[in-house]
Amino acid sequence: MKPSPLQLESYMFTRVHVDACDNPACQDIEGTGQFESNTHCQQHNEDASRWMVTVGLAFVQADGEECPPYTIDIEVVGFFHVADEFPEEKKISMVKANAPAILFGAIREMVANITSRGPYPRFDLPTVTFIDEAQPKAVKANGAE
User: Fold this and answer.
1) DSSP readout, the chain?
2) Residue 145 lies in a domain
3) How many domains, in total, are found in the chain?
4) How far is CA 117 from CA 9, 58, 70, in A?
5) Which has fewest Cβ within 10 Å: 4, 10, 62, 131?
6) How many CB atoms lie within 10 A of CB 99?
7) In a domain, 88, yes or no
8) Taking 80 as the threshold, does the pLDDT of residue 26 lie above it?
9) The CATH number of the domain where 35 resides is what?
C-alpha cells in the first residue's frame, strides 16, 4: 500500500435532506425510486495542484411508482491536493475519476448513518464508478459535445 497522489484535505456537507415515507407500507417496497447525481470539479485559480470537487445525489420517487422508504437530497464539497510529481497530463483524469468516488463514500456513510435511525431499514447506496466522467468527451467539428 502506498499513498495516493490525490489527497483529500477536507470535506463538508453543504446539503443533507432525508425524508422517510409517511406510508408504513413503504418498508415493503423494493426497487422504487431513481437516482439523480451531479459532479463538478474546479481547479484552484492560483494553485493548480488544488481542486474543489462537489458531488450531489438525490434519490427521488420515480414517475408512476410508489414512494420509496426514503427520499434523499445530499451534497458534499471536498478539497483535494494532487502531488506535484504526478504527471500533469493525468491530473484532470485522476481528479475527475477519484475525487468524486472518495466523496461518494462519505455520502454513502452519511446516508447509512441517518437512515439506520429511521423508521425503515438502513438504506445502503450502491457502489458506483466515476471513470466515465474522467474520460475526455468527443467534440464534433462544430464544437458541440
Assistant:
1) ----SEEEEEEEEEEEEEEE-S-GGGGG--S--EEEEEEEEEE-SS-TTEEEEEEEEEEEPPTTSPPPSEEEEEEEEEEEEE-TTS-HHHHHHHHHHHHHHHHHHHHHHHHHHHHTTSSS---PPPP---HHHHSPPP--TTS--
2) no
3) 1
4) 29, 19, 12
5) 10
6) 26
7) yes
8) no
9) 3.10.420.10
Q: Is the pLDDT of residue 139 over 70?
A: no
Residue type, 60: V
In order of 3, 6, 13, 80, 142, the CA distances from 102 in angstroms are 14, 10, 13, 10, 35
Q: How many residues does the chain have?
A: 145
Q: What is the per-residue pLDDT across 64-113, written as a single tens digit (0 to 9) for each? A: 888 889 999 999 999 999 999 999 899 999 999 999 999 999 999 999 99
How far, in Å, CA of 38 to CA of 29, rounded?
26
Q: Cell 481547479 maps to which residue?
A: 43
In a domain, 47, yes or no: yes
Give me the domain span that covers residue 41. 6-134
C-alpha cell at 84: 506535484
Does residue 1 fall inside a structural domain? no
Type of residue at 23: N
